[in-house]
Amino acid sequence: MSDPLPPAAALRRIAFLLERAREPTHRVAAFRTAAAVVDALGPEELDRRIRTRTLTDLRGIGPKTGAAIVQAHAGEVPDYLARLEEAAGSLVPLADDVAAFCSHLRGDLHVHSDWSDGGSPIREMAEAAIGLGHDYVALTDHSPRLTVANGLSAARLERQLDVVAELNEELAPFRILTGIECDIDTDGSLDQTDELLGRLDVVVASVHSDLRAESAAMTGRMLAAVANPHTDVLGHCTGRLLVPREQGEGRRQRPRPESTFDAEAVFSACVEHGTAVEINCRPERLDPPLRLLSLAVDAGCEFAVDTDAHAPGQLDWQGNGCERAVECGVPVERVVNSWTAGELLEWTAG
Ligand SMILES: [Zn+2]
Ligand SMILES: [Zn+2]
How far is the CA of 111 from the centre of ligand 2 (A)? Predict the structure, then answer.
């Protein structure tokens, strides 16, 4: 993509490419903030600010973002964007078999918005997914007890369902599937009302607490969640973190090892109850580890190759999971997000 874009779109494209390249989130956020400032200005005020060279007087616009705005406004591709596009073009392409596997995917079943701990509005996530050629994404913001991630109360989730319904009318035939990344409580129950879980298209159930529990307890907890009729996908099953992770305001989460549990028991329960095992594509997760992924293939599990994207550029991370799926011999027909939205919804409802 090298056609000139309007200023706000150019800034968002820069943010997308920075995210995809795993640049620090504050750098990405600067461009997205500037895009929002430009949106709020309106075209006349933007003209005036550029003419009077007062763009960088605005809160949220600095020298780099300001220069990109001026160039985009003049109908040029900003230098900053051109450099990023060039770098993106020279990335090592996926191996042929991995690219072929990726090409079967029609959507993504684990995506966050700024309603919980994601960085962007639902619409921007959906538009980025459309840009990648997806037919659908499941919006899976966090559940209430994950307060550090601004988990959604039942009331907020109800409101989100209305917002999604409106967006879907506008974005059709693309579809935002309603969903949740639901915490698995220590007793194995799911952290949202039964009534609401029953109304959602996709329920990803994940362990986010007490990750160091001993194996028997963790196994029991996961078995209960996998057997729950509302659960469709078991999210990042080991909870491992391979590298430190930025948590905003300069806080960092340290790497952590896999949780221990009886993987054979959990995966056979997944087969029995029709719960897909997630292949989480986040570079700091890459969960399950290859040895467990192979075990799940042998057990006969179904899979969801999910980015767990918290920002639009991260929606492009599915290649990470596809690479691992190919390495472990995952049959693509067992990947539920290679199915059409209709087939997928029939499966989640079943
Ligand atoms: Zn999670
Ligand atoms: Zn998540």
Answer: 7
d(CA 219, CA 217): 5
- What is the rounded CA–CA span in Å between residue 203 and residue 190? 10
DSSP state of 205: E
Q: What are phi and psi of 141, to 5 degrees?
A: -70, 165
Structure tokens at 245: 């992770």
> Which stretches does DSSP call E strand in the chain?
107-111, 136-139, 175-183, 202-206, 233-234, 245-246, 252-253, 276-280, 303-306
**291, 300, 292: which is closest to 272 by C-alpha?**
300
Q: Which of 45, 46, 44, 57 is nearest to 10 (CA)?
A: 46
CA of 110 to the centre of ligand 1 (A): 9
pTM assigned to the model: 0.85
pLDDT of residue 2: 52
What is the model's pLDDT at position 1?
45
Ligand nearest to the CA of 209: 1
Beta bridge partners of 138: 177
- 307 CA → ligand 2 middle, Å: 8
CA of 45 to the centre of ligand 2 (A): 39
Q: Which two tokens stand for residue 304?
A: 């969801």
Residues within 5 A (CB) of ion ligand 2 = 181, 308
User: Which residues, at least 6 apart from 309, have a Cβ–Cβ distance to it below 8 Å?
Assistant: 108, 110, 111, 112, 118, 125, 315, 317
Q: What are the tokens at 292?
A: 């467990």
Closest CA to 234 of 197, 183, 291, 196: 183
In the three-class reduction of DSSP (H, G, I as helix; E, B as strand; rest coil), residue 206 is classed as: strand
DSSP symbol at 243: S
Ligand that lies nearest to the alpha carbon of residue 140, given by its number in the listed order: 2
* pLDDT beneath 70: ranges in the chain: 1-3, 90-91, 247-250
Joined tokens for residue 109:
């079943």
- Closest listed ligand to the CA of 309: 2
Kindly give the distance from the C-alpha atom of residue 206 to the centroid of ligand 1, in angstroms, as a whole number: 6
The two beta strands, 252-253 and 245-246, are antiparallel
Q: What is the pLDDT of residue 248?
A: 63
What pLDDT was estimated at residue 249? 65
Beta-bridged to residue 177, according to DSSP, are: 138
